[in-house]
Amino acid sequence: MAANMTPPGCGSDLDSLYYNLCDRSAAWGIVLEAFAAAGIVFSVVLFISLLASVPFIKNPNHKNSVALDASFLFCTTGLFCLTFAFIVGKDFSTCASRRFLFGVLFGGCFACLLMQCVRLNIQARRNVGPRTWVLWLGALGLWLVEVVINTEWLIITVVRHPLLPNTTVEPIRATATPCNIANQDFVMALIYVMVLILATFLASLPIMAGKYAEWKKEGALILVISLISICIWVAWIVMYVYGNERTGGPTWDDPTLAIALVANAWVFIILYTIPQICCLNSDEETEEDYGENGYMNRGVGYETILKEHSSQKVFMENKAFSMDEPGKGSKPVSPYGNYTGQMRASVYQPTELALISKSADNQQQQPSFDIVIPRASLASAANSGSSTPSTHTEPGNSTHLQSSGPGLQRAPQW
What we know:
This protein has helices at 2-5, 27-52, 60-63, 66-87, 92-126, 132-160, 169-174, 183-188, 191-204, 213-246, 253-281, 283-310, 352-365, 378-384; strands at 375-376, 391-392, 399-404, 407-412.
């Protein structure tokens, strides 16, 4: 008899609680089981790759989001695992995990996304984000609110609805205390999660008005995720509260919630986690491109400086052969002043000693035109008996004046 009641694809010794995992007549369980198992494996691989990429992240703004990304991925993995609780039958443990973990895991995902929106709003305007521990503690505080709500709700309902006596084994499983709850009450217990979803959607909108396009891309991803999540939640709530009673009855309640879990979890993986990890791993390439561009910019600037200096007449002297400064009124002579631009082989190349000797001769040939005002002397005027007073110069002067005729003549002394 037991063998005749066993669904196709399941063993005869398998507990009836797990029939949906192998029943080929109800294919929804097998399909959701495959998607959930693939999601778990994929999430674990992404989690390992995220942790392995931490030492190679160069941008500190991206490194600040690693803790939130890891927490978000952990909660997403929990959503895939929770799907199996909705595939299997109802008993005390499965119903308690459904009611408690459904809101807690979704609350953790959207709390991380909300704090990511806060980070991106700051970085899109200042290009500098808050520290890691600030973001993670903010997400933890938002998540603990949902934990407290679900814990209190679960304890209160369990105390108010004890187990029903005088029933067989199968009805006890279906009417266990955590399972004895209306669909409307289950939805009302998730109001805080709905507030987090709406807050995430609204907080992602101002990111698009920021100045830095790099952070706008991440903000656009969160905007799309929150919008798709809102659509998924509206669909399953309408189906769970109103549609199932008119179409398939209570038998469609578990598939509805399981489909919502798998669909929303895969949206998180495909539209956020994978692009986020790719952005973290592309930091090194971005820095290499920035270094090459910086080098090219420096080269252009150096050429520009050379062009600016070439328009001016700049005379460079080799300080190893520089001479003392000439006296006042003398013109400085450059040892390279005779350069005409001809080839080295066709031009006479003077030696350093010849250049120094030539410079010294030029300085000696240039007379000094310092004017000395003569001073009249009474003694010289009496001795000469002439009407023209004689002048005396100081010993240190390099010129003397001669009196010839009506005026004074200046004769340089070589």
